[in-house]
User: Which sequence fits this backbone?
């Protein structure tokens, strides 16, 4: 997904921020940060949010989120932050700066304000949990004028007549992100085709069935395990990352969302996934 990102669009008291660096070290480190700008909007016509991700070399990914539930400005702001951090995590980003013009939300996350009310506490807890996934993650409040792009996207999200806009991703959010844990239920997850190969390359374990064991040892020659991630060897391309079913579903969803606006078919989706160095077995 990291390659897809780079090629696709680029047209209760909580913890302190995870980074505090001063002087020249800060300037050098900032060059490697992904920047996330967020803004939430709530009006009589609906509520939504806008978010803009900018890579260290200046390429941009834009989203507007349309909520199918009532959300205040602050809740919409949190929803945008959660979506942005989730995207960054899937893109394997390690260093991220989050910018918002919301004094309340930024100060709650930075531990300067106390979150009050069950929903705000849940939102804050969700954000802090996502922050722990990054090597560096910190939040800065900026003037509204410096957050104009995300602000415009959040306003567009509340206009029902707008279904898509150029190279901007749109997503309809049915339920608040803080409901995810409450709605979860236990399900049986089917074993992936990746698992036997990983077990063999990592631990030397083979299936008990002799035919299946021979198949795994033969197929494993075409794969390479690096940092717990299975990669498929390729003559024409770099290593292709193999995706678990849940990862594959996410990859297809993100790529399809980007190309459907131009009415491009499934074959082009497959090409983008291949260029994004993702390998999915159906």
Assistant:
């Amino acid at each position: 997904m990291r390659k897809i990102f780079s090629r696709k669009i680029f047209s209760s008291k909580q913890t302190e921020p995870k980074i505090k660096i001063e002087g020249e070290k800060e300037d050098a480190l900032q060059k490697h940060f992904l920047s996330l700008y967020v803004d939430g909007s709530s009006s009589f016509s609906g509520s939504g949010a806008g978010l803009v991700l900018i890579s260290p070399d200046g390429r941009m990914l834009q989203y507007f989120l349309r909520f199918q539930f009532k959300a205040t400005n602050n809740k919409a702001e949190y929803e945008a932050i959660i979506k942005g951090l989730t995207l960054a995590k899937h893109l394997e980003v390690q260093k991220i700066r989050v910018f918002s013009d919301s004094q309340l939300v930024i100060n709650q996350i930075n531990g300067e304000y106390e979150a009050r009310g069950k929903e705000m506490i849940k939102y804050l807890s969700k954000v802090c949990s996502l922050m722990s996934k990054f090597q560096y993650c910190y939040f800065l409040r900026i003037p509204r004028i410096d957050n104009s792009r995300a602000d415009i996207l959040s306003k567009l999200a509340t206009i029902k007549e707008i279904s898509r806009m150029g190279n901007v991703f749109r997503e309809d959010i049915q339920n608040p992100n803080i409901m995810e844990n409450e709605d979860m239920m236990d399900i049986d997850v089917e074993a992936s085709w990746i698992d036997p190969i990983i077990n063999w390359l990592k631990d030397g374990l083979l299936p008990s069935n002799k035919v299946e064991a021979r198949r795994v040892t033969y197929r494993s020659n075409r794969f390479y395990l690096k940092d717990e991630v299975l990669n498929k060897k390729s003559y024409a391309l770099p290593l292709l990352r193999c995706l678990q079913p849940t990862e594959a579903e996410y990859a297809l969803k993100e790529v399809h969302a980007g190309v459907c606006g131009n009415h491009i078919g499934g074959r082009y989706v497959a090409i983008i996934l291949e260029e994004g160095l993702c390998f999915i077995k159906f």
